[in-house]
């Protein structure tokens, strides 16, 4: 039985048109005016609605042992939250730490998702050390369809790699045709500044930002770029938070370094005063890189609008209030992370498109198409075209609502964006032709999601 979506306005990068979309099995097979469909076809009337390609979150954490605890979501809860918010594909950071075996970690992360996710997913494989078996293990992981790596320049002695390991990872990535994503903060400086602040009795969440100031992120971004330049590898800076780091990335771009940049919704909409709130309220807004001084938000929005920043992810990383409170005696023990998988699209639409900061074109690109292109998913994902997977978001621009933990589907007891108004939300969300969410409710098939195998890109 097919699915026909009629009367909507289809919006993709570079085009807007009114047309019907016909789906057979899992794939878009026809796009055109007044399409006829065989008897038995399910018909969705999208009059007054916008139709976007399924949105892609290029940076989430779901299974994550980190900072003496575990992030709260499962693939079931995270994928349902994602779908209700219009995200039909996410890329999870597979993060074994330096003491773990990378291949065993990869199998573990895959097992957590297998048969559990309601939407499609892929992985970025973290390289958290470079030892004798690393190259052969990474080759096996790439052959399995995971063609992007992740390195952390921060989180010393846990996820963090040193410069030698970064060089080896980038040099291998270049040979394998794999893009390397990177968390760019100088680990040594963070470690020294944390110790200094604690020795002065500065223990609250408001000291998290001063322990990893903008210059520390700018140094990490610049160093990553220099290593890309000297290995010829292709890189992607995750969760870039501030003007100084952006300047380092853009300087590298202007001298021909192959580097892309991701912003995440917390840095676009929240500033460091959230983490300066008293007690656990401040702790709920601790992430790394930290929420920054407010002037950085306008810089990030402008960079998104003019294509200096390529994508918007969430860095979804849910720790609940009790877990955050592990840091009551020291900000270095607050589990880092802010959730957002359910709210990214609506926040970007509301505070980007509706607020006049992003054109519709840029919105679709940063929230879907660009990530598909960078991470080897295009045109299967990130497009509305004959032959593409039928991942579609029929979007209601007239919906009005307020974000609240009380109504969210992510497994957490707070929402970092609590109380923010949204103007628009998905009305129908399909994954490979099956309706999975409708008007804020999950109505689909649990476990429908598949791991997306990707080919190397040989940039
Ligand atoms: O604070 C954050 N970002 N937590 C998740 C781990 C990471 O650095 O991405
Ligand atoms: Zn990070
Ligand atoms: Zn992250």
List the keywords.
8-stranded parallel beta sheet, alpha/beta, 14 helices, 7-stranded mixed beta sheet, binds N-(aminocarbonyl)-beta-alanine, globular, 21 strands, 459 residues, binds zinc ion, TIM Barrel
Task: Give an account of the 3D structure.
- With about 450 residues, the protein is an alpha/beta fold.
- It contains 14 helices and 21 strands.
- The protein has a domain at about 55-375: Metal-dependent hydrolases (TIM Barrel).
- The chain has helices spanning about 75-85, 100-115, 135-145, 165-175, 185-200, 210, 215-230, 245-255, 265-270, 280-285, 295-305, 320-325, 345-355, 360-375; strands at about 5, 10, 15-20, 20-25, 25-30, 40-45, 50-55, 55-60, 65, 70, 85-95, 120-125, 150, 180-185, 235, 260-265, 310-315, 390-400, 420-430, 435-440, 440.
- A hairpin with a 2-residue loop joins β4 (about 20-25) and β5 (about 25-30).
- α4 crosses α7 (about 215-230) and α7 (about 215-230) packs parallel to α8 (about 245-255).
- About 55% of the residues are buried.
- It binds N-(aminocarbonyl)-beta-alanine and zinc ion (2 copies).
- One zinc ion binds near residues 59 and 93.
